[in-house]
Amino acid sequence: MVRFLLHQLCIGLSTAIVFCTGLYYFDIGGLATLVGKSPQGEVALILLAIGLATLFAPLAVHTALARAAAEADDATALVLLPSRDSGLAHEARAILDKGAIAGFPRWLVRELRSDHAGETGAVAIYAGILAVIRDKNVVCFAESHQQTEREHLRLIESILPLAHASSLLPLWRIAGFLIGATPALFGRRAVFATIDAVESFVDQHYTAQSDRLARERRHGTVRTLLERCRQDELSHRDEARAALDASAGPVLRGWCWLVGAGSAAAVRVARLG
Ligand SMILES: [Fe+2]
Ligand SMILES: [Fe+2]
User: Fold this and answer.
1) pLDDT score of 193 more than 80
2) Where do the domains of the chain lie, and which CATH numbers do they carry?
3) Collapsed DSSP state (helix, strand, coil) of residue 78
């Protein structure tokens, strides 16, 4: 618990520092001018960073409560039923209806919950990009990727009833939107680098789940579905990487690190509830 709180604090501070540095560097809202005129400018900037970091406190509290509830629960397997018809989701349901899967262990439910939260965030990332970017090539790129992410979301929803979805879906939507809209403010290279970072993380995430299912030799059909999503994510990553015509500079690399670290923290939280 203490380790988790420290981790959240580190992520919060990192985000706040990068955010404030960006505001200061680009003098958004006259911040650099304001700080420059004040003898205690640096202190004010640090206080602002700490203030922003406290925004993460509610997230940490929610996580602590969810973890306590999860520990109090027993480890009984949950029976999951397909819930929706549509495109790929229908295909998933057909696979599941063959009767190979009647119940999932708790760890798999948690993983699917994190997948559902991630795909929700992915749809929002492209909404954020499309809200800002005007470059026609990037618009095409984002629209086509968003369509795939919507299909992934429907696919996960076809095997995970919404009753088991994360209770923080609004937060994942907002976070996703900001992860998409922020780099879009700085142009196409920032967008492609961000998608490369996001999809590299998602590849690792799905690979870990797929490997565990392979080791346990159970729920092969779920593994097939996750692998199918992973292949799309890899294709998204490669497309973004190819479009990024030169290596990213230090600021962009820092942003991409933050995106990866934030995604890892979000997955941990989404698994809990
Ligand atoms: Fe996806
Ligand atoms: Fe993707």
Assistant:
1) yes
2) 1-73 (no CATH), 76-272 (1.20.1260)
3) strand
